[in-house]
UniProtKB/TrEMBL annotation:
Keywords: Membrane, Transmembrane, Transmembrane helix. One of its GO terms (molecular function) is GTP binding. The keyword Transmembrane applies. InterPro entries: DUF3482, GTP-bd, P-loop_NTPase. This is 50S ribosome-binding GTPase. Residues 11-149 form the G domain. SUPFAM superfamilies: P-loop containing nucleoside triphosphate hydrolases (SSF52540). Pfam families: DUF3482, MMR_HSR1. GO terms for biological process: tRNA methylation; tRNA wobble uridine modification.
Length: 473
């Protein structure tokens, strides 16, 4: 962590209007409150975006307006005869009342107070003389500077021109797409910042370490949230009185509905908490149509996608909301897999009926007169629910982790459609699946000390999986 007496490094993000400066600031500071707009001239005043880790500011990025009158600014600087160190302050003093120079004064102000420069251009357009004037202004400021080529569209035919020109004016150059940059690309950018000025090396290294510890912390917290969500979903049980004469089908449907709503809400809450950990407040992404996260948690499609085995299909049908209307047949099959258990006088009879193949049809249960007092739903005895929730949580994390904060559209961050994958857990090793198994069995036994141990084990496994996801995001 940054010691108290070390000044916080600051970088002003400068460039022509509408090139993506604010978007770069937003991605680098992981702050999606930065105003980004397709209309040039959106940013009219400088604004500081500090990066806080554990309440301490480690680095700050300054969003600035685009150059307004670069030719006149450059001409003034070239004609300036005074002390170089006073040049920017003098420029601002002389032009501060001139509305035609307002933005130039504003963007040069942080440089005058010592900020480093990150110059942003949209590399998908050709280089113009205006850009050369802007680069020359920045060179004349004498501040340490790097250039970022932020390609707003896929066109890379102008890249070589930009790179050649940049070599004349900047200490460091990077391709950096503010809409697609991943965590590792941001770290790579910070590493390049070290090279622009030797004095910055130590302090930027400290920032990189703080970032990396913070991300590790977020992954650990996400893993803890996922494990808790799994435990609560799988441990759930509820019962209702079912005296003779009461409409049992309706009661089951109601218990079932309450159960699926409970798990669905738990899942949504856990996902939202993870989204907040990664500082995404705007994320209302339209996932690809095929995405499994689009689907209802209990839809048969979800379960098929994520590798459901044939013998679990009836169980899945029983779990799906649609099956509620189907009637007792499917619901009864559900009982056999542990969604519903009839407790009280019925256990012996039901237990006998569950043996053998007939249980799948449910036919023998259908006509049975059971003097049950209570109907119980949960705890779930089918481990598939664990894998489905786990896979969906990991897929959700992948979306969140790979989303750049500077992005403002609502399409998915991922180029590859994750819905095509069969989920993560299906490719896990036997050892990893055993961890899930132990966790699941401990929950069923309601054995608290054993649970604590396996919860730790599972959290650790999830944390490691999240690390791998972040690495490849
Ligand atoms: N597709 C795509 N669009 C981008 C990218 N970067 C920025 N944009 C879009 O370009 C527009 C301008 O982005 P801003 O970040 O507001 O640009 P700016 O340089 O701050 O603009 P001013 O404040 O007006 O000077 C916005 O509509 C952004 O969403 C990018 O990497 N890819
Ligand atoms: Mg802006």
């Amino acid at each position: 962590m940054m010691p108290n007496n070390v000044p916080v490094p600051e970088f002003a993000i400068v460039g022509h209007p509408n090139e993506g400066k604010s978007s770069v600031v937003s991605t680098l500071s992981e702050d999606d409150s930065v105003r980004v707009s397709p209309v040039p001239g959106e940013t009219t005043e400088c604004r500081i975006f500090p990066v806080l880790i554990d309440g301490r500011e480690v680095i700050r990025f300054i969003d600035t307006p685009g150059f307004q009158n670069p030719r006149k600014t450059l001409a003034w600087m070239r004609a300036y005869q005074g002390d170089d160190r006073e040049m920017l302050a003098e420029f601002i003093r002389i032009h501060s009342k001139d509305p035609a120079m307002h933005d130039d004064c504003a963007l040069l102000a942080p440089l005058s107070s010592g900020a480093g420069i990150i110059f942003v251009v949209d590399g998908s357009r050709p280089l113009r003389n205006m850009d050369r004037a802007e680069m020359e202004i920045l060179r004349l400021t004498g501040r340490p500077r790097m250039a970022i080529i932020n390609c707003k569209d896929e066109n890379s035919s102008f890249l070589a021109d930009w790179q050649n020109e940049f070599r004349k004016h900047f200490n460091s150059i990077r391709l950096f797409n503010s809409n697609r940059a991943t965590y590792s690309q941001r770290i790579a950018l910070l590493n390049s910042l070290k090279a622009i000025d030797q004095d910055l090396e130590g302090v930027i290294e400290t920032v990189i370490q703080a970032f990396s510890a913070d991300w590790e912390n977020r992954r650990r917290q996400s893993a803890t949230l996922i494990t808790a969500m799994l435990a609560e979903s799988l441990r759930y049980r509820a019962s209702a009185d079912c005296p003779p004469g009461k409409d049992e089908t309706q009661l089951k449907a109601q218990l079932h509905r309450e159960y699926t709503q409970f798990v669905t809400k738990l899942e949504r809450t856990a996902h939202q908490q993870i989204r907040r950990l990664f500082k995404h407040n705007l994320f209302k992404v339209q996932l690809p149509e095929q995405s499994i996260l689009q689907e209802d948690l209990f839809a048969a499609k979800t379960w098929q996608f994520l590798g459901l085995r044939d013998e679990d299909l009836i169980w899945a049908a029983a779990m799906s909301g649609a099956a509620v209307g189907v009637g007792l047949d499917v619901m009864t099959a559900g009982i056999s897999f542990g969604v519903f258990a009839a407790i009280g006088g019925v256990i012996g009879a039901a237990g006998a009926a569950f043996k053998g193949k007939e249980l799948l049809s449910g036919s023998r249960l259908l006509g049975m007169k059971l003097d049950k007092q209570q109907l119980q739903v949960g705890p779930v005895t089918n481990i598939q629910l664990l894998y489905i929730l786990l896979d969906r949580a990991l897929l959700y994390c992948r979306q969140i982790i790979s989303r750049a904060h500077g992005r403002r559209d609502s399409t998915s961050a991922l180029l590859v459609d994750e819905g095509e994958k069969q989920g993560y857990a299906s490719s896990w090793t036997t050892e990893e699946r055993k961890i899930c198994d132990r966790f699941f069995r401990a929950l069923q036994k309601e054995d608290a000390p054993a649970q604590e141990l396996v919860e730790k084990e599972l959290t650790e496994l999830i944390r490691e999986k999240l690390r791998k996801i972040a690495e490849h995001a």
